[in-house]
Amino acid sequence: MEPQSSALPDGFDVVVVAASAGGVRALQAVVPALPAAFPAPVLVVQHRRPATPDLLTALLRVRSRLPVRPATDGVLRPGVTVLPAQQSARLSGDGTVTLAPAAPNRSTDDLLVSAAAAFGPRVLAVVLTGRLDDGAAGVRAVRRAGGRVLVQDPEEAESPGMPSAALATGCVEHALPLSCIAPALVAYTMAPGAAELLAVPVAPWARLGAVSGASA
């Protein structure tokens, strides 16, 4: 399937930041570096075991200039929303979030596929450190819908599996050092014309087709 129009959006309806192994440290580097005026809602998904209370939300809240909250069913709000362990979410075009159980190690794919269906080119996805290949099907869906994808440089990731798998799809625009992820998000969302300037065409060898078993 060919990607939708390459016309760039005037902004982004959602930024999805995904991680797994090593993700707590990576997220602690990215989230607090976002400014208080960051305009797009941020959804964080990370593979982790359930805990009471959910420590990831508390850890990210400590130094963040944005409000950080646990995800609940309802309307997507500005700031940072952290999905519960072992859950993903279904998104709708009106901004409604509905939590849903995730298949093992597939919470990122589920969330990105849903975001792409709901918001099309107005999705900005980031894949950070993690094992296995969760996110690969999701970044295909995002790029197929005209959205944008960044990954952490696998060579410096604590666990390179997830960013490497995303890169292997041919659907990633930029692989960046962790220290550059937050500045890139700021540029994409807040600097006039930057998203267009940073645009990279989908590689001719990119595997954009839907993957069997991925959620729609």
TrEMBL record:
UniProt domain CheB-type methylesterase: residue ranges: 8-192
Keyword Hydrolase belongs to the record: yes
Protein's UniProt name: protein-glutamate methylesterase
Active site: 20, 47, 134
Enzyme Commission code: 3.1.1.61
Cellular component GO terms, alphabetical: cytoplasm
GO terms (BP aspect): chemotaxis
InterPro entries: CheB_C, Sig_transdc_resp-reg_Me-estase
Species: Geodermatophilus normandii
Keyword field: Chemotaxis, Hydrolase
Coiled-coil positions: none
Catalytic reaction(s) noted: [protein]-L-glutamate 5-O-methyl ester + H2O = L-glutamyl-[protein] + methanol + H(+)
Pfam families named in the record: CheB_methylest (PF01339)
MF terms in GO: phosphorelay response regulator activity; protein-glutamate methylesterase activity
